[in-house]
Amino acid sequence: MTTATDTISAGHHEAESHGGSYLDRKGVLSWIFTLDHKRIGLMYLGAVSLFFLIAGLLAVAVRYELMTAAPDLVDGNTYNKLFTLHGAIMVFLVIIPSIPASLGNFVLPLMLGAKDVAFPRLNLLSLWIYFFGASFMVYSILDKGLDTGWTFYTPYSTSTSTAVISATTGAFILGFSSILTGLNFIVTIHKMRAPGVTWTRLPLFLWAIYSTSVIQVLATPVLAITLLLLIIERTLGIGIFDPAMGGDPVLFQHFFWFYSHPAVYIMILPGFGVISELVTVHSRKHIFGYKAIALSSLAIAIISFLVWGHHMFVSGQSELASAIFSFLTFAVAVPTAIKVFSWVATLYKGSIHYNTPMCYALVFLFLFTIGGLTGIFLGTLSTDVHLHDTYFVVAHFHYVMMGGTLIAFVGGLFHWWPKMTGKMYSEFAGKLSALLVFIGFNLTFFPQFIMGSQGMPRRYHEYLPQYQTYHLWSSIGSFVLAAGLFIAGGALFFSLFGSRKAEKNPWGGISLEWETTTPPHEHNFHGQPAVNCGPYDFPEIDHTQEKAHA
Amino acid sequence: MSTSSHAPAAHGHDAHGHGEHPKFLAHHFYTPEQQLTSAKLGMWLFLAQEILFFGGVFMAYIALRFFYPGTFLAAHEHLNKLAGAANTIILLTSSLTMALAVRAAQVGNKKSLINNLIWTILFACAFMVIKYFEYSAKFEHGYLPGKYYHGHGIEGAPHVFFGLYFTMTGLHGLHVLIGIGVLAWVLIRASKDEFGPQFYAPVENVGLYWHLVDLIWIFLFPLLYLVR
Q1: Sign of CA dihedral B171, B177, B178, B183
Q2: Interface of A with B in 75-114 (CB under 8 A)
Q3: Which residue range(s) make up the domain with A465?
Q4: Is the ipTM of this complex over 0.85?
């Protein structure tokens, strides 16, 4: 690969001669009390991976139960607890922090050419809050069980005897972590950019993180007050949400989705950002429609606040409101499609390298497109009334959350892994994992679209025999998917003990994180870096740039 | 970015060379101005999330008042308007002393800074004392929130009104208590002579927070005490 490193290596031999990496300091305390965004990112990564493993195994258990129409592995109550634990861990502990808190923490200051985030101590605090909230939540769910689903709908959540109060307290605490991380990132992007890193030279990953952070700061407090009011309702019975006490359960749904719909963009926008990086770097081509992609992230962030009612089409809200929410929901498709078309146009005539990250990016494009398009079915009022609470919904949100966000997360991990650890993984294992994940994922969730459209309701542990075949295929797919993810995890994990050292810039990226040593120095850069062209002006393609620099 | 290089002028700021770094300037900032504007932007974002947080209870207020207009009208007569008005005046005055404290920090007047911070803390405590007497009076009459309500003489769903009253004023009171805590923290730092025209971001940020706490009360007072 002839890469941009050629043109910059001259300025960097002195930096490399300094040696040293952020991983040099040893000892547990050097991790617990670190203010280094890179170490904090790695600790988030460790925690997120652990919870991903746990919640993934829970999902496999759920699928195992569903292989036959009769309840054989677990009884109904246990089944409710299993999927609640799966959903709650995946949403609150895995997907929301996955890309921003781990990859974002690591890469964001590097991309900006900054020494750290704006508030390093706040960053460490949000990590601790995350650990505390996560342990609190998991412990309370395991101790007393929780069977409300991750949505905590009233009046069931105000009357069930399971651990609603402690689990929501855990989610409440986690919210602080999310808010503080978002706040930190916004300020960092505004104030910590190196000379020459203008807004239009920000890597698109950062535009996505920025938009995500805006939602985190503005939507999460609404969830916090909602959960707090739910706790107060359960303890004091003040009559806000529980109809038996004079409250309104639909009000709870409004409150909950006012956060939780924007929250799905907290989950997916960072994935968009990762894909924007992977697609352009691994096809050696300038991103198509930089400004359109950047601004569409912001557009999604804004529209996300106006569409929560589409979760409530059958809740009894007014038909006019439902119709308006339905049309507003369609509006989300516009900026989203702008992104997908721009990525495809970036690939067009690009010099595509089928590296593992690129394979995952292609998997993402395929899966997310299906997930996004089926979202239109559900946003359409008339079809949603039919599809509501069926497996169609389950399949849809797995295609966007898992097929979108988590696939982008894994792809991004393969992309930045060499920079984070200084080690190269086995490309063969990486690509094999991408293939298995692709096959397994579609096998798991595509049959769910079909059975959902035929009326299979979600959240049941036994079902009519007519759905048996689909469930069987789906369960087999989930095993393949799990195998693929284990191979991906293994490829990364064992690379740590392997001897293959990563180059400074294995993919030939030209955004700033590739300019520093591998693994980066404790303070990221020696001296302050400066920048005088965009993050995707690859020299071997953009000849005007090359001449300008020569 | 392919030609990024080390700007020669920036070499002096190398992470290892803290030579020209003032003590108050964190290592990852290059100038005091960058640190100050970062801190202020962070605080404004924090205030934005606070507003969204309180927005939830205000929204609940709107919905419930819409359900129970008669109850709200009848129940609010049992709140002590005089105490509410006194607390409004106290908080507004504390905002003035807070603003004066920020000004004093900016111009480096340590004595005025400390005096004004002490006054602000005293006003905040006075607010909580009055709140305490108000709460005690409610408890005596059985005007407790939700299912603990056992008062008499109010038609409709007074438990909802008092549930909301205690939730809203309780959350606000909690913010006042936190405010007293951070004001005390700033006061201690001020007495150690840490602030001056070069570095006053903590004072200003605590001031911003305090004004928001004041502002929320300005909305709570008419919504709860002056229902018509």
Answers
A1: positive
A2: 113-114
A3: 34-544
A4: yes
